[in-house]
Each structure stands twice: as structure tokens, then as C-alpha cells.
Amino acid sequence: MDFALTGEQESFRRAARAFAEKELAPIAGERDETNVYPVELFKRMASAGYLGIKFSSQYGGDDGGILAAAILFEELAAAAAGITLGVYCHVVLALTAIDRIGNDAQKRRYLAPGIRGDKLGAFGSTEAGAGSDITAIATRATRDGDDYILNGAKLFCTNSPLADFIVLSAVTDPEKRGITLFIVERDAPGLSVSRALKTLGMHPAQTAEVVLENVRVPSANRLGEENRGVPNMLTAFAEGRIVAAAFAIGIARAAFEAARQYVLDRVQFGQPIAKNQVVAHRLADMDTDIQAARLLTHQAAWLADNGRPFVKEASQAKVFATETAARIAAQAMHLQGAFGYVLESPAQRYYRDTHVLEIGEGTSEILRNVIAKHLGL
Ligand SMILES: Cc1cc2nc3c(=O)[nH]c(=O)nc-3n(C[C@H](O)[C@H](O)[C@H](O)COP(=O)(O)OP(=O)(O)OC[C@H]3O[C@@H](n4cnc5c(N)ncnc54)[C@H](O)[C@@H]3O)c2cc1C
Fold first, then answer.
1. Would the pLDDT of 216 be above 90?
2. What pTM, to 2 d.p., does this model score?
3. Of 10, 82, 163, 301, which has the fewest beta carbons less than 10 angstroms from its beta carbon?
4. Residue 259 has what pLDDT?
């Protein structure tokens, strides 16, 4: 049993941290205020090999696997979570669906340019009546010759205002609730995207509503077999939960580090507040929780990379890491007193950014249902 990263993984982690500190961290606060996504970063991430981290070199990827993706997303999220959410939806949702389900032609047309940063993807499952229950969607795809005609609306579709294509789900067999995934060009006639929604956190990420009115999609853009959309999505996104866990650890680590520095610097009653054992113990617990979350996450990534069953472990990692991050961000803000509460302080941003990670990619309740099922309950 080896708990250390290999030399190669460690130098990848160092390079990813240097990239994140140079390119993301300096603009994190400003983009949180302006809500503007730095789309130009996609090209630079592609040049660094980050957009293809978990995909095959056949399509320009890095063959890095899930552990490498987890290492990368922890570093990016620690620097700027709101920017990282856009990268996550492109790589871990849209491109992963095409990588796992698509055919060679679809991979050449969308995955390869997505890895190069030439095309940006979004993923749309959620609708007004379908969140956790991905089978409850109302968007309908009707066959018309060699095409499908799509009608419906997707809510909370991150990247959609900026994307070149959207991978989305639609009902193809209403009687049997058969659902199919499609790749839809963002400029397809009949497709419109609303203004980005205002959210509590993750401000630079552009999350909007997508409306489809008689959108014609060629059958060449059907992803996988007809009516196999739900099992296809579940397969493609089981790994995503591991990366989401690493994402949360990144925010938790940034929140923890800021709090640690503050309690060392802040003097009250003639000594740094870190000298109060109750404060030091809180920091000790925070660090322990981060370490536990990272071990669970890297374990799940290792299982996935080694072809072993990992669904239960991925769910456990995501529940534990996201709930840990939310708790740590709140504690870190509290430890910084009024300074943590002012908008100039990143503490409040970490606090606002974490919560959505307990909702997306399976809420904590849905993931506990998955874990319980694996326990025979
Ligand atoms: C910033 C942001 C970005 C997003 N980006 C995307 C995106 O790019 N693409 C996309 O498709 N979606 C996206 N989403 C939507 C996200 O995936 C959904 O919010 C999520 O799936 C949960 O669905 P819901 O919000 O409808 O909650 P609901 O499913 O309505 O759940 C509400 C509450 O009820 C609980 N609940 C539901 N069912 C059960 C049950 N069986 N047992 C116990 N508790 C239950 C949930 O855990 C939750 O606490 C985004 C959301 C946000 C906030």
C-alpha cells in the first residue's frame, strides 16, 4: 500500500498549483464581483494539457486518469472556484459524456476541439420539473426522417451562454420514459439561452436557461443508442463525483489556509489568537477533515483508474468532501471575525462557493441513497 503520489504526480500537482496561482488566483476576487467569465483561460488550460487530462491521447488528451483530474481540480478550485466550475462543466460533464458514449466521428468533431480549447461545451439535464430525478424531464425529441426535432427547456445549464455545443437529455420514448442524449450546436435555429442567473456563489460561472423550440438535430449528433440516456449518464458521471469531491477539497484548503494565517497574525489580549487552545484545536480538526476527505477521494480515484468498482466510494468521497468543505468554509470565516465577513475578504467567497457542491452531481441525500443501496438497505 502506497499513500504517496508518484514523483510524476507530485510534479504535475506542483505545476497545476503554479498555473492556478498565476492565472486564476489574481482574478478570483475581481471576477466574483463582476460575474464575467474569463473564456480566454480555456486556451491556456488547453496548452497546459488540462482540458484533456482524463481523455485518450488518440483525441489529444493526456491519458492522466481520474486521480490526475482530482489533483488538477483541487488546485484550480483552491485558486478560483467560480472559474473552475466552468472548466468542470466543460471537461467533467460535456466532454466526458462524449468520451464515454460518443462514436469516433463525434469525438473528432467535439471532444478533440474541446480538448484543444477550440470549442466549449455545456451539459443540460436539469429542468423545472426534473432535478435529482433525471428521468422526470419533459424535453422531447421526435424523429423526423434522419433528424430529431427537440422541444423543451433546460434550467441551470452552466457555460450555456458561452458554449459552442450543449450535451442534453430528451425523451425519445414517452411511453417507456426512454431518454436519449444529444449534442446540440449552440447556434442551432430555435435554440436560445437566457441571461446568466444570479447565484449565491460561483459568480463568474455562467449558469442559464436553454430553450429549445423545434430545434433540428441530425441523428449523427445522437449520443449513444436511443433510449439509453439514463444508464449512459449514470456511467459517464459516476467518476465526476470524485472530481467534484476534489473540487470541494480545493475550496476547503484555501479557506483553511487563510484562517490559519489569520489566527497566527491576529493579536488579541496580547497574543496571537492561535495561542488559545480552542482556536488551535479547531484548526487541527479542520486539517484532519481535509486530509480524510482527500484520502477518500484519492482512494475512489485509484479504484476508478484501476478498473475496480468505485461507485459507493465515489459517493462517500463526494458527500464527505463537500460537507466538510461547507463546514470548514463557515468555521474559517468565523475564525476571521468581522474581517471574514467583509466582501474584500476571500473568506466569505469560499463560504458562498462551497454550497452548490453539495447540490450538483447528486445532492448529499441522493448520494446517501446510493451508499445505502450498496449496503443492502
Ligand atoms: C450553480 C449551479 C450550476 C448548475 N449547473 C448545472 C449544469 O450545468 N447542468 C445541469 O444539468 N444541472 C446543473 N445544475 C442543477 C443541479 O444539477 C441540480 O440543482 C441538482 O441536480 C439538484 O436538483 P434540484 O435543484 O432540482 O433539487 P431537487 O431534486 O428538487 O431536490 C431538492 C431537495 O430535495 C432533496 N431530495 C430530492 N429527492 C430526494 C430523495 N429521493 N430522497 C431524499 N432527498 C431528496 C434533495 O437532496 C434536495 O435537498 C446547477 C445548479 C446550480 C445551483
1. yes
2. 0.97
3. 10
4. 98
